[in-house]
Design brief:
Blueprint: H1 2-7, H2 11-19, H3 23-30, H4 34-44, E1 47-51, H5 63-69, E2 87-91, H6 97-100, H7 103-110, E3 119-122, H8 130-139, E4 146-150, E5 176-182, H9 188-201, E6 207-212, E7 235-239, H10 240-243, E8 256-260, E9 289-292, E10 311-314, H11 335-348, E11 355-360, H12 368-375, E12 380-385, H13 392-396, H14 398-401, E13 411-415, H15 417-427, H16 434-440, H17 453-464, E14 472-474, E15 479-484, E16 487-492
Parallel strand pairs: 1-2, 2-3, 3-4, 4-5, 5-6, 6-7, 7-8, 8-9, 9-10, 10-11, 11-12, 12-13, 13-14
Antiparallel strand pairs: 14-15, 15-16
């Protein structure tokens, strides 16, 4: 009776209920009857992730791949389960000897039938062979959108052939390629594979990630680029070691750029000369958004470089409730260096700066009038502080000296996340949830005024005297203030990972 009632529901509602279930529960639901199995199996196999388990010796981590490698005749109802996959993730960090021999065989059997995959991700770089590369590009020629390969190893392939010669054109919708943690010194086989892949997809790529697992640049990295440009690329995530090599292809349409953290010895400090030839003045002419380390930012402020930069995110400054990476404490520059960078940006950009996320050791409230002219067009401002502001009067004074002169500012966030992260690192405690955080770090509350809401309301009242557009304010990462028709309302923030 219950089964018949369940199947009398509209199909859209059944699928919505099934999507809300955990994978083990969804698997159990498929075993209820034939109708459930037939209708919900596509949902179960739409996303397949091969991941590490807590006790790998006790479990077969490759069980999912074994199932996918079976021919349709060996599965229930004769279905080709591999053709149901939309997203495939091979997220094994390490591979054991008994798995190393069988995994390539299983993948070779499964991948040629992945003809509906949209997203293919391989975090076990040693498994991404030329055969696998060609196999997925060929099988998913009409569906593949994203290809991601990480933790790439230098290995010698059995057959030294250019892997993409057999393919006439890239998949029709293939526009995102992510090559993460390339070795700093590429073997000839790796160069042949990844240089060929970049050349093969160059005209179609819209999003590209190229990161290196060391700061040391090597001449071999330049061999990756066999093409003069990526004509349609608009989003680039790249390691500094690759960004500064002279052979980097032209990217005339890139609007968003993230420079991966690397050794700052490769970059100048604010106010020092830009190394000649590092980033030509003509590079990235359409750049609107940049995220990088503070010491890398001057590379984009050359004397003759004019770019429409309007959004800046420096040193991973972010607004998060808890920062769980206990070793990755963001470096915060001095106030003088921040002033210098903003001044140089004003000269090097032909577009008003509308969004700024930055870490600062402390704010020199006496020098604020000197900085405001460089940020008066801001609509969004996030400041991650390394020191607590001293007193209500100091923060309240921002209303008259800063906010009153920033007529477009609608969001102002102060983050004490760095102070919390330092406290966590000092105690050697990694925090994952808000409850664990409060239990493990009862005195690591960031700013001392984090929970003084009446005090914060007084400051908000002062801000309101100088701005009609300010709608979102935070004095801590514990909660935010949002302006409604009834006034300022405190909104609790969820506990997010860094």
């Amino acid at each position: 009776m219950m089964t018949s009632r369940f199947h009398s529901l509209p199909t859209e509602l059944v699928v919505k209920i099934a999507r809300a279930l955990a994978l083990p529960d969804l698997g159990s639901l498929l075993l209820v009857d034939t109708a459930s199995n037939l209708s919900l199996t596509p949902l179960l196999y739409s996303s397949v992730a091969v991941k590490d388990v807590k006790f790998p010796q006790r479990y077969d981590r490759l069980s999912a791949v074994r199932t996918l490698a079976k021919s349709p005749e060996g599965t229930s109802f004769g279905r080709d389960l591999t053709s149901l996959i939309r997203k495939f993730y091979l997220d094994l960090v390490v591979i054991f000897d008994h798995e190393r021999n069988i995994l390539p065989i299983l993948l070779a059997a499964a991948i040629p039938r992945m003809n509906n995959v949209h997203h293919f991700s391989c975090d076990l770089g040693e498994c991404f062979t030329p055969a696998i590369c060609v196999g997925i590009l060929q099988a998913a020629a009409s569906s593949l959108r994203t290809l991601r390969v990480a933790n790439i190893h230098n290995i010698k392939y059995r057959k030294r052939v250019t892997p993409l010669d057999s393919l006439p054109t890239p998949p029709a919708h293939f526009s995102r390629l992510h090559l993460v943690d390339l070795p700093h010194f590429l073997s000839p086989d790796n160069i042949r594979l990844f240089a060929g892949l970049l050349q093969f997809a160059a005209d179609q790529l819209h999003v590209l990630t190229l990161s290196v697992n060391t700061w040391r640049p090597q001449y071999k990295l330049s061999s990756l680029f066999l093409i003069p440009s990526f004509p349609n690329l608009h989003t680039l995530d790249i390691g500094l070691a690759l960004l500064i090599i002279p052979e980097l292809p032209a990217m005339p349409r890139v609007r968003s750029l993230r420079v991966r953290p690397t050794d700052s010895r490769l970059a100048p400090t604010a106010g020092s000369p830009v190394p000649p030839g590092s980033i030509p003045a003509s590079a990235f002419p359409a750049l609107e958004r940049i995220a990088c380390a503070f010491d890398v930012f001057p590379l984009f402020l050359g004397e003759h470089a004019i770019r429409p930069i309007s959004i800046i995110e420096l040193d991973n400054a972010s607004y998060q409730h808890n920062l769980t990476d206990r070793w990755n404490v963001p470096i915060v520059p001095s106030w003088d260096r921040v002033q210098g960078a903003l001044r140089d940006l004003r000269r090097a950009s032909n577009t008003p700066l509308t969004s700024l996320s930055i870490g600062i050791h402390r704010i020199d409230f006496g020098d604020l009038p000197k900085v405001v002219p460089y940020v008066e067009d801001l609509e969004y401002l996030l400041v991650m502080l390394g020191m607590e502001p001293s007193g209500i009067g100091m923060l309240a004074s921002l209303g008259e000296h800063m906010i009153a002169r920033m007529p477009r500012l609608h969001t102002l966030l102060f983050s004490d996340g760095r102070l919390k992260l330092e406290a966590i690192r000092t105690r050697g405690t990694i925090v994952f949830t808000q409850k664990e955080y409060s239990q493990a770090e009862p005195d690591a509350s960031g700013f001392s005024f984090a929970q003084q809401r009446e005090w914060q309301r007084d400051v908000l009242h002062e801000f309101g005297r100088h701005s009609r557009v300010l709608r979102r304010v935070a004095f801590t990462t514990e909660f935010q203030w949002v302006k409604t028709d009834e006034g300022w309302e405190a909104v609790e923030e969820e506990c997010n990972r860094w």
